[in-house]
Specification:
Chains A, B: One of its GO terms (cellular component) is cytosol. Chains A, B: Keywords: DNA-binding. The structure is a homodimer of 62-residue chains. Chain A is mainly alpha-helical and 62 residues long. In chain A, 58% of the residues lie in helices and 0% in strands. Chain A is built from four helices and no strands. Chain A has helices at 2-11, 16-23, 27-34, 42-51. In chain A, helix 2 (16-23) packs across helix 3 and helix 2 crosses helix 4. The longest helix of chain A has 10 residues, at 2-11. In chain A, 29% of the residues are buried. Chains A and B meet through helix 4 of A and helix 4 of B.
Chain lengths: 62, 62
């Protein structure tokens, strides 16, 4: 999931800090999320997906 | 999300208890999840999706 968030963010040319601010997520927390080091809650996934204007399911790799 | 989990579970004629056991989730916790009373972690969403043989994104309504 973290890798998809990072890829999507980069494709939209948004910095990690900007995405964190847009999603209302702590900046250091966002770093851990992108590195796959956090088991985030679904509500956080929704906030990040909304900030990236993507369906949340698209950020999940399974 | 809870409603989708419930709908999917019912369409597969699986009881809430059986789904909880299959997903390795506490039975009472599953009840709260289905009623939308829990902000579950993505890992829990994956466990439930795997038990229902569905892509996790399909259980997310947005």
């Amino acid at each position: 999931m973290g890798r998809r968030i990072r890829e999507t963010r980069n494709s939209q040319q948004i910095s990690q800090e900007t995405l964190a601010d847009m999603a209302g997520v702590d900046r250091s927390h966002m770093g851990f999320i992108e590195r796959g080091k956090r088991d985030i809650r679904v509500s956080t996934l929704f906030k990040i997906a909304r900030a990236l204007k993507m369906p949340p399911g698209n950020l999940l790799d399974f």
